[in-house]
Amino acid sequence: MRHFGHLAPDIRKTLFHKEPVEFTADSPARTLAAALGATLYSPATRPRLAADVRKQAGRGVRSMVLCLEDAIGDGDVAAGEENLVRQLGLLDEAAAEGADLPLLFIRVREPAQIPDLVRRTGPAVRILSGFVLPKFTAERGVPFLEALAAAESACARRLFAMPVLESPQLLHLESRAETLRGIAETVDTHRDRVLALRLGVTDFCSAYGLRRAPDMTAYDVHLVASVIADVVNVLGRADGTGFTITGPVWEYFRLHERMFKPQLRRSPFLGRAEELRTALIEHDMDGLLREIELDRANGLQGKTCIHPSHVAPVHALSVVSHEEFSDAADILRPERGDGGVLRSAYTNKMNEVKPHRAWAERTLLRAEAFGVAREGIGFVELLTASVPQT
C-alpha cells in the first residue's frame, strides 16, 4: 500500500516531486509509525464491517481501528467480538484474493480480550497489525502489554500496541508528573512493541464537563493544551527516547451554526477551488485544518478520525512541501556535518544545521510516507485531487 495510491498514476505525477513510498504491514516500525496518517475508527458492531474497511481502503485510508470500547455500548461487547471475528475472517479471504487492506488494529477494553480474540480469530490474525490500549497508565498498561506479548507469542506474528493517553490522572495537575513518569518507564520497557501513543482528548474534556466547539481547536482549550504540551515534553523528544504521538480526534462533520469567522483564507482557493473552500467551511473543516497544522507545530503526527471526510484533509496536509523538502535535504547534506548556517534555497529563511537537524530528519521520514509535492503544488491541489467523488 501507499498513501495516495488510490489516485491514478497520471494524477500523482502532476502532484508529486517525489511520490510516497510503498509499505506493508511488515515494514519497519519507524516506517509504519510515520505512515499511520488519518487513523479511522469504526465500531466493531457494524454488520458490513469488512465491506466498509475495503471501501475506505479504496478511498485512501491506510490505518483503521475496529473499536470494542467507547464506540459501542457496554451491552454490545459480546456481539461486537463475535461480529469482529467473523468480519476479520471475511477480510482475510479478501486479502488472499489480492484485496488491499489498511493497517488494522483492535481497540479492546480489558487485557484478557487480546489473547482471546487472537485465539478466536485464528489464521485471520495475519491481517492484524495490533491493538489499541485504552486509558493507559503504568498500572493499567502493564497487564495489557503482557497480554499482547503472550498473544504475539501464541500466534507467532508481530503485534503492535498503541496506548491511548486519556486517564484523569494524566489530566489532573497534582498527579500528572508522576503519571507521565510511570507511562514513560512502561512504554520504554516495551519500546519494540509500542508503535505510537494516541491522545484521548475527548476523555480529557469529559473530566471537566467540557466540549470544544467546531470553530475551536484542542489548543484553544487550555486544560487540554497543557496536557498535550507535557505529553510531548516527556514522550515526544527527538533524542531517540521519544515516540510518535498522534493528534486528537476531530468530532464534527456536519453543518453547525457558526459564531466566528471562517479560518480559511480565500486567496489559496481563488480561481481553482472556491467550491471546495465553501464546502470545507460549511462542514467545519476549516477548524480541522487549523488543528492539523497546530498538531504538527506541537510535535504530533497523524490524527484520530471518526468520519471518512476527515481523512483527505489529514493526508493532504501531511505531504511535505517542495520548500520543506529543499530545506531538509540541504540541512542533511553530508558536507554540512560540522554545522553552520546557510540561506535556504528559497532565499526566505535561515537554516541552522545543528538545531534544525532533528526537524529535517523527521521531515524526510514524513516525505517517504506522504511524498513531496511539486513546486507550486499546495494543500488545495492535493485536497481537491483526494476528496472522494460522490
Automatic annotation (TrEMBL):
Q: Which domain of life is it from?
A: Bacteria
The residue stretches assigned to a coiled coil in this entry are none
Residues noted as binding Mg(2+) in the record, renumbered to the chain: 174, 203
UniProt entry keywords in alphabetical sequence: Magnesium, Metal-binding
Q: What is the required cofactor set for this protein?
A: Mg(2+)
User: What GO annotations for molecular function exist for this entry?
Assistant: catalytic activity; magnesium ion binding
List, alphabetically, the InterPro entries matched.
Answer: C-C_Bond_Lyase-like, Citrate_lyase_beta/mcl1/mcl2, Pyrv/PenolPyrv_kinase-like_dom, Pyrv_kinase-like_dom_sf
Instruction: Check the record and name the SUPFAM superfamilies matching this protein.
Output: Phosphoenolpyruvate/pyruvate domain
What's a BP term from Gene Ontology annotated to this protein? oxaloacetate metabolic process
Which Gene3D superfamilies does the record associate with it?
Phosphoenolpyruvate-binding domains
The name on file for this protein is ATP/GTP-binding protein
